Amino acid sequence: MDIKPFLDIASRDHSHLCPRQILGVRIGLKGLAVCGVDASSKAKHLLVISETDGCFVDGIIAATKCTVGHRTLRIEDYGKVAATFIHTETNRAFRIAPTLDVREKAPRHAPKEKRRYFAQLQAYQSMPDDELMTVQEVELNFDVRDIVSRAGRRVNCAKCGEEIINERERIVDGNVYCKPCAEGGYCQLA
């Protein structure tokens, strides 16, 4: 498959092309393939969980068309260049990551390039899949329906009164709360 159109999208959205975007595109395309989703169609039965943010995700988005706004992309920032692709109808999930020695292999695939960064830039575009990445079928530690939820579901928090959407409420002693009121959040009022 010609990956150039996907690289063009990723570099346009990111203002340049870097090795991690190429990894994102290649891993994104492989994720579509293992989930049985055609790269030319909208992946409506696909959920992608990226283990980092940044330019890698730009490549994932370019290849899969999955986005946070469409609720088909989530970020679990572990600081790892890897992503899990979940077919939401079959619940099959595949974690795809670069091989542990991918950086060391890159110069062999771009022998004329002496600069490491540019060797990666070239090599990641053409390396065979099995040298570039690993694919592992995984079992999820959650029910995918809890993430996908039901659109249009709305309730209000009994403590702060704010609206909670997409079935993210918590029930404590029979009362409905938002996650920050029930369990604490990422910030507090100053």
What does this structure look like?
The chain has about 190 residues and is an alpha+beta fold. It has 2 domains: about 5-145, 60s Ribosomal Protein L30, Chain: A (2-Layer Sandwich), CATH 3.30.1330; about 150-185, Wheat Germ Agglutinin (Isolectin 2), domain 1 (2-Layer Sandwich). It is built from 8 helices and 9 strands. It has helices spanning about 5-15, 20-35, 55-65, 100-110, 115-125, 130, 145-150, 180-185; strands at about 45-50, 75, 85, 95-100, 135-140, 155, 165, 170, 175. The chain has a 5-stranded mixed sheet with strand order 2-1-3-4-5. A two-stranded antiparallel sheet has the order 6-7. The longest helix is centred in the N-terminal third of the chain and has 17 residues, at about 20-35. The protein is elongated and about 65 Å long. The mean pLDDT is about 90.
Provide the CATH top-level class of the largest domain. Alpha Beta
Helix content: 25-40%
* β-sheet strand percentage: 15-25%
Unreliable spans are: none
Order of helical and strand elements:
HHEHEEEHHHEHEEEEH
Counted up, domains total 2
| Strand order within the widest beta sheet | 2-1-3-4-5
Computed structural class: alpha+beta
The Rg value, from CA coordinates, equals 19 Å
Q: Tell me how many strands there are.
A: 9
Query: Judging by the overall fold, what is the CATH architecture of the largest domain?
Result: 2-Layer Sandwich
State the separation between the terminal residues, measured CA to CA: 53 Å
CATH topology of the largest domain, which one? Answer: 60s Ribosomal Protein L30, Chain: A
Biggest sheet layout: 5 strands, mixed
